[in-house]
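User: I'm preparing a small set of examples for a lab meeting where we compare how different chains pack in three dimensions. I only have the primary sequence for this one, and I'd like the structure in token form so I can line it up with the others. Please keep the answer compact; I'll paste it straight into my notes.
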Amino acid sequence: MLPICNGSGVRFRAATYNVHFFQRGWSATQHTLKSLDADVIALQEVLVSGGSPLHSIARNMGYRYVVSQPYVRYGNSYWVLAFLSRYPLLSQSEVRLGQSRRALRVILDVQGQPVEFITMHLTPLAGNSSGRDDVIRRSESRKRELSDLFAWLGPPAGPRILLGDFNFLRGPVGFWMDEYEMLDDAGYEDADGGLFPDNEDTFPIPGETRTALESTIPGWLIPHAITLDYMFVTAVDVESVQVREADGSDHWPLVGDFRIEGSQ
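Assistant: Understood. Below is the structure token output for the 264-residue chain.
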């Protein structure tokens, strides 16, 4: 845990990680999570199928944990959103976004300062057989989901961090789809530096996704990896943000060190 900064508020570390339904094993996920040494971790695609390893992971690592209602189902299996936290939970709530997605909000007592953390997993950027029309339809779904999110949250009354798998792009292609711009217009700051981040991207593009994207985007424009995972903040100072390469999922975790001024 990061120490309190004397006379200048508190510092803490938060992370977001799409665990890809523990496909590479929950022990690999736990190893990755432990390496982050984060005070608060937002998780997406947390698989529940006749029980979930999340309870054991939280217990083994000394975290409290909170989970959402399911947002994707496959027979008797389903995905939930989750938070792991070293801080006491003050409240939790959640909401449906668009047709089927969800957002999970917790308010945590961060060294005496209430801080809002919200995680979500928006509609995927593209499918295995997505053409242009499908990519556009998915973009419109994410816009509805973000509109629902903003309406639910309302204006921030204090420190707030949105963190999760947003499934949209920054840069020229991102502005064509507009979702990134919606966060900016709503008053949220991209913790990773905006349009010119210093970090690697969070999602190495698999072959099947590249093939799907090539039906819409020229192959030479498709990079080795893209960023789908973000942290957006209000009333929070960003000290640093890093992408951590890890093999516990098809995503790489995004980790940020933050400070809240004047909270002590």
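A couple of notes for your slides: Confidence is low (pLDDT under 50) at residues 1-6. The helical segments are 26-36, 54-61, 132-153, 171-177, 179-185, 207-213.

User: Perfect, thanks.
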